[in-house]
Amino acid sequence: MKQMSDVLFLDKRFGFFLYLVVEAIMFATLFATYIIFTPAERGAHPSEVFEWKTVALTSIFLLSSSGTLLMAEKGLKNWSRKWIWVGLVTTFLLGAIFMGLEIHEFYKYAHEGYTLSMNNFLGAFYVLVGLHASHVAFGLGWMINLMIQFTKDMPRALFIEKHKIFNYYWHFVDVVWVLIVTIVYLPYLF
Amino acid sequence: MKKTGWILTLFLLSGCSLRVLDPASPYADKITRLIYLSFGIMMLVFVVVMILFVHFLKKFHETSDRVDEIPVDESGNRKLEITWTVLPVLLLVILAVPTVTTTYQLTSGASQGEGGQDKERVIIHVKAEQFRWEFTYEGGEVSYDKLVLPLDKEVELRLTSEDVIHSFWAPNLAGKIDVFPDKETRLVFTANKLGDFQGKCAEFCGSHHALMRFETTVMEASAYETWLQDQ
Amino acid sequence: MRLPIIGYVLSDVIVSWIITLIIGGFLLWWLTAKRKWPLILDYIGTTDNRKIGTMYILFAILFFIRGGMDAMFIRTQLAVPDNDFWVFQADKYNEVFTTHGTVMIFFVAMPLLIGLMNIAVPLQLGANDLAFPYLNAISFWLFVSGAFIFNMAFFFNAAPNAGWTAYAPLSNDTFTSGPNNNYYIFGLQISGLGTIFTAINMIVTIARLRAPGMKLSRMPLFPWATLVTSSLILVAFPVLTVALLLLMFDRFYGTSFFGGEFGSPVYWQHLFWIFGHPEVYILVLPAFGIFSDIISTFSRKRIYGYTSMVISITLIGLLGFMVWAHHMFTVGLGALANSVFAITTMLIAVPTGIKVFNWLFTMRKGVVRMTTPMLFALGFIPTFVIGGVTGVMLAVAAADYQYHDSYFVVAHFHYTMIGGTILGAFAGIYYWYPKMTGKMLNEKLGKWHFWLFIIGFHLTFLPQHFAGLNGMPRRVFTYTWEDGVFLFNFVSTIGAYLMGISMLFVLWNLFKTHRSGTSSVDGDPWDGRTLEWTTDSPAPEHPFPNVPVVDRLDAYWYAKVNQTNLPQTKDVRPDPISIRTFQPILLAGVLMVMSIGFIYHWMWLQILGGGSVLAFFLIRSWTDERNEAYRKGEKS
Ligand code: HEA
Ligand code: HEA
Ligand code: CUA
Ligand SMILES: [Cu+2]
């Protein structure tokens, strides 16, 4: 008979993947919305709003955070507390910087008068990218929680399970970002 | 079976007086034929199902001598299953062909009307707003909640809305066309019967949607001209 | 009526408050007097699939009475031309049909089916619970939360009023300001989340918790239907979520996706129907599954054409995503789009027809027992076929220019939804009642219920076809003598009252069954075929201490025929962990608080509610029941 934690983890992983399917469809619908309404007939054109520096910077930080998370995953595999710590902390820092840049970006746009009610391009942009940003923010909170749990006494199988589920989440959020860059930003940058 | 008979008689009794089935334009007439055709096919399907249903129930319901009977098992029958896959497909093909042709004929992408381009069209602008209809004729004449049409002339309605979505519906004359705030829709038909016909807003549009009605009067062309003068 | 402080309120709201307070007070007194509180607490804190399923059904019946009363108000107002019944004209009428439609679909039909899935699916699979018992409780309480939010609106004189389809721009704040349609958004959003979680739960359960030997090709048809339905939910509901989110931004934060200067009203219709059409198959496929099991059981024969039955539901599910624009034939999408969607829509008749004929041929050469569940299944066949073929008539795009938004459509969807979903749910409730409670419902009253309901049903909705053909649009609160639809409407109203009366037989039946403490039944009262009948009635929290081994479809039946026992095994995968917890109801509560904050634009309450929701995640993470379970599991 298989270990209980193995079997239940497989259940949970399958369930979480299905949940990610749900998220993917939500994002897909928002991408469709963005494509339909962009560029808008009136109000700001994306090319006047976006600038490639912000996009490049945010992408670098978020995408590399997926890489650093791999260190933690390796740590999980060999149960090396050091690697788990290193992986989690660097991922957190990179994610936090992304978050800061993102807030700055929104703040700047709004300051320049590009608010979400200006036209539907901006409306769709804020809803889509904002939903992604809130996913990153949620992920940051999740990582703090994981780190605290790591310091506490918890069955190892359970910690590994929780960590792995988080990893799937974070990689998913990263993939969405890649799509955002290619669909939302890139066509209007150059 | 009783139910079937009942539907049929009710239908026949009232059929001729039901507005949708009492067309006053070639447009509405085409739809009426289509409805009768589809109704016929559907009755066929329904009757077949009912015959099997009643027959099987009569023959195989539990009787006191069958209480302990365990029927022989059968898992299916390829041939029968193919039959009731193919026959419906055939029926649907019979239905789909006129559906597509009529849909193409009646959907006024604007230019194409029922009678080709050569005929002169009467163009009427229709403005819908909560909860009334405004009709503007070619000479700038305006009428409210009353649409007047010349007999046997092709008319083209160009519809827009001031606020929410409405829908123009005069069942004897034509099918519905929705009326939008952000785009113009069109409806082309030719009234070929004199008389007054009811019109209604068919898309739910707020508190007094139920009262957003209009009257359509079809007049001889000459009477139509005089009526316009009076406006 | 003008009240101090509150202001102008119509008398129906006041009457409802009074009645609700009286009934509520009586209920509290009764629960205390009969010492029922421990039982209530037991149910609130449970993660057991049978108990949760039972609660789903109880709440659904409650909301069925609510939605049914709305229907009665509709029918009374429409009984005669130029009627002025009580307050139900204009805006009030619009609120009534909006709540009627929304409540019936989201808070009656869905929970009835999900409740039955909860009860029957794990048992039919030989599983001891759903894969995620805790998540299941969350789903249930999210449904309750959403339903309460939606139903609350009426009591604060702010019921949603843009139709269950909430077409923009009418549903935008320009044309319907006030909190009314905010209730719609949040009620659906939160209960929809619960539905998504249920779908995930069902798929994982079906994929991973089947009894040894039960390949997918040996699985009964109700779990099959559940699997397909859950997949549809997984794809359709997120689209609704996003549509509602965008609508919320339009209403709250000044965007204009669906209205205003730049917006596109038709885009809302696309999003809504991309969800909405699969939704109607979500409503009907589980009912198909229930009927398959029942017809097979009460014909004492295995289901005819099992493989094609499975293929059919899958095909219906797939095609269901390709037909949404048949609700938009009059929008002016153009002849090509209309023709394409007309044809894809018609195609659905083929797999549905296969199912109908397979049901008929299951009865052929069988022994058809006229029990109450079977009566409902039999009533379903002609009724649903009428609803289905009128659906095909609607699919004739050009003809739909006439039918659309008329009572012909109203007739069509009541024939499919009541003839399919509601009859299916009734059949399922009578059928599995022993598994829920250990008692049988009275057969005689059940038959009264059936006959009154089905006669009332056809009286109500058959004439509506003709009212529609005679030019009666839907969603109107009045009509005139000249319209010539009086007789159709009058008959329809009589029929509706008959349906109402038939429901009183249900209440009486429930009362009688539980009053007269009739002796409990054994595990297999119907001489069933599937695994749920191998357990006790009611099904215990841990129904399969030893799990049966299955070697074919309907294995239990063949074991009975051959007078052997099903082989059993203890060597199975570990069970999901059930616990007692009050967290789910807590989450439902804080979500409700947050929603009210949004509905009335109270920022502080939004923050309070939102913060509590986030805190809830932490609590959940730190009280994970796996902590203890793994600790025990790993030491041994
Ligand atoms: C349970 C719910 C349910 C089900 C199962 C269906 C099933 C079908 N529906 Fe229905 N429908 C609704 C619920 C449902 N519908 C609702 C709620 C609305 C209105 C929403 C609103 O506007 O508020 C609606 C509206 C609606 C419209 C839009 C009408 C309009 O607004 O103008 C159309 C148009 O094509 C349509 C078509 C169909 C078709 C073709 C089927 C098919 O699946 C039916 C297939 C079944 C059969 C055909 C019978 C059995 C088959 C045979 C015996 C084989 C032989 C048959 C033939 C050869 C024909 N439906
Ligand atoms: C599953 C879904 C479902 C169900 C079951 C029903 C059930 C009924 N519906 Fe519903 N209906 C819809 C879904 C449903 N409906 C939808 C989606 C709409 C469209 C809304 C819109 O346009 O936005 C609609 C619209 C609709 C209309 C059109 C309104 C309009 O367009 O203006 C009408 C009119 O006759 C109607 C009638 C009825 C009737 C008489 C019943 C009856 O079957 C009801 C029977 C039930 C009861 C009568 C309650 C029973 C209980 C009691 C009476 C017990 C007594 C009480 C106590 C002891 C406390 N419905
Ligand atoms: Cu205008 Cu309804
Ligand atoms: Cu549909």
Task: List key phrases describing it.
heterotrimer; A: 190 residues; mainly alpha; Four Helix Bundle (Hemerythrin (Met), subunit A); 83% helix; 0% strand; elongated; C: Cytochrome C Oxidase, Chain A; binds heme-A; binds copper (II) ion
Largest interface: B-C, 88 and 91 residues
Distance between the termini of chain C: 70 Å
CATH architecture level-2 label of chain B: Sandwich
SS-derived structural category of chain C: mainly alpha
CATH topology of the largest domain in chain C, anyone?
Cytochrome C Oxidase, Chain A
Q: What does this 3D model show about the protein?
A:
The complex is a heterotrimer of chains A (190), B (231) and C (636). Chain A has helices at residues 4-37, 46-49, 52-78, 81-111, 120-151, 156-185. Chain A has a single domain (4-189), classed as Cytochrome c oxidase, subunit III, four-helix bundle (Four Helix Bundle (Hemerythrin (Met), subunit A)), CATH 1.20.120. Chain A is elongated and about 60 Å long. In chain A, 35% of the residues are buried. Chain A contains six helices and no strands. Chain A has 190 residues and is mostly helical. The N and C termini of chain A lie far apart (59 Å). Chain B has a single domain, classed as Cupredoxins -  blue copper proteins (Immunoglobulin-like, Sandwich), CATH 2.60.40.420. In chain B, 38% of the residues lie in helices and 25% in strands. Chain B has a five-stranded mixed beta sheet with strand order 3-2-1-5-8. In chain B, helix 2 (26-60) packs antiparallel against helix 3 (78-106). The longest helix of chain B has 35 residues, at 26-60. Mean pLDDT of chain B is 87; it is low at 110-116. Chain C folds into two domains: 1-35, no CATH class; 36-469 and 480-635, Cytochrome c oxidase-like, subunit I domain (Cytochrome C Oxidase, Chain A), CATH 1.20.210. Chain C is built from 20 helices and four strands. Chain C has helices spanning 11-33, 37-44, 49-77, 90-125, 133-155, 180-208, 221-252, 265-299, 306-319, 335-347, 349-363, 372-395, 397-403, 407-437, 443-469, 486-515, 555-561, 583-599, 603-622, 625-635; strands at 2-3, 7-8, 547-548, 568-569. In chain C, the strands form two sheets. A two-stranded antiparallel sheet of chain C has the order 1-2. Chain C has a two-stranded antiparallel sheet with strand order 3-4. Chain C is globular and about 70 Å long. The model of chain C has no long low-confidence stretch (mean pLDDT 93). The chains are: A mainly alpha (190), B alpha+beta (231), C mainly alpha (636). Chains in contact: A-C, B-C. The structure holds heme-A (2 copies), dinuclear copper ion (CUA) and copper (II) ion. Residues 128, 131, 166, 201, 203-205, 209, 212 of chain B line the site of dinuclear copper ion (CUA).
